[in-house]
Amino acid sequence: MLIPTQAVGTDGQMPVIGLGLWKIDKAVVADVVVEAIRAGYRHLDSACDYGNEKEVGEGIRRAIDEGLCTREDLWVTSKLWNTYHRKEHVVMAMDQTLHDLGLDYVDLYLVHFPIALEFVPFETRYPPEWLFDPSEELPTMKSAAVPLHETWAAMETLVDSGLSRYIGVCNYGVSLMRDMLNYARITPAVLQIESHPYLAQQKLMRFCREQDIAVTAFSPLAALSYLELDMADASESVLEQPAVQAIAKRLGKTPAQVVLRWGVQRGNAIIPKTSKPERLLENASVFDFELTSDDMDQINQLDRHQRFNDPGVFTELAFNTFFPIYE
């Protein structure tokens, strides 16, 4: 199975469908990576915070050893966690990720959130997650006074030294992106954001297109990514929408394939997560059909600006800290 690519930066080609590795258990993620690569996936979306990069690295090594791919065939993304935003910690975090993945470089390194938290030493806790000291009676997040431009300048040195081919950001809005372009020596190659039919983010995507910044959408199936975290309800599934169901029936596709096709047909990459081999194939089998303009319009009309991954909500509920980053 050949997954098309989209241009990134000056000469990069990022597959438009990748495997999201968030929430895949360490016990199975190496096998999932191997099966994904066997199925034709070449884009792996990882992060320090996912807590499974050593096992992801094991899967990559196994796939290469089995002759399923070469390192150069793969597009590997990782992310800088919130506690490593100070300039002296960025390279440390990158080195740890490369050590865990067993790689000399990543293809893309992203600032995970526009959220700076106080540094937690590796020997204290890795990955450090959100809480500064979980042993406190009422543990909270502890913000750090680190401007975003300091973090970005340190990210740029990763490109200079060849540790990452490209750099970018996650969870930024138009205002932060516009400001960033005023101070960036190296323009962000990719913006990764939550986007699905309930959160289309049309203006942000248009802005990125005009600036030649590629967009990757996480949680492309909306609520399905958040059911196990109690951050969404099954009744919120976009797959149950009558418009999606009708289009799927007409095309002989699953509702998930219709929604994922909508995602890539908009011109961005998507990173659906699954640990099931049959779903790996289903999620990537969206290039043998096309949605009509009417189909696209019907799905666009489902937009209700509903964000499932909102720090302004989950940080207070889970980490006793009100920390909004969106209006």
Describe this structure in words.
It is a single chain. The protein is an alpha/beta fold and 327 residues long. 37% of the residues lie in helices and 13% in strands. It has a single domain, classed as Alpha-Beta Barrel (TIM Barrel). The strands form 2 sheets. The protein has an 8-stranded parallel beta sheet. A two-stranded antiparallel ribbon has the order 1-2. It starts with a strand and ends in an 8-residue tail after the last helix.
Topology:
Blueprint: E1 5-8, E2 12-15, E3 19-20, H1 26-39, E4 43-45, H2 53-65, E5 75-80, H3 87-101, E6 106-111, H4 148-160, E7 164-170, H5 174-183, E8 190-194, H6 202-210, E9 214-218, H7 242-251, H8 255-265, E10 269-270, H9 277-284, H10 293-300, H11 311-319
Brief synopsis:
The protein is an alpha/beta fold and 327 residues long. 37% of the residues lie in helices and 13% in strands.
Name a few traits of the molecule:
TIM Barrel; 327 residues; alpha/beta; single chain; two-stranded antiparallel ribbon; eight-stranded parallel β-sheet
Beta-strand residue percentage: 5-15%
Q: What is the alpha-carbon Rg in Å? A: 19 Å
Name the CATH class.
Alpha Beta
Estimated structural class? alpha/beta
Uncertain parts: none
Shape: globular
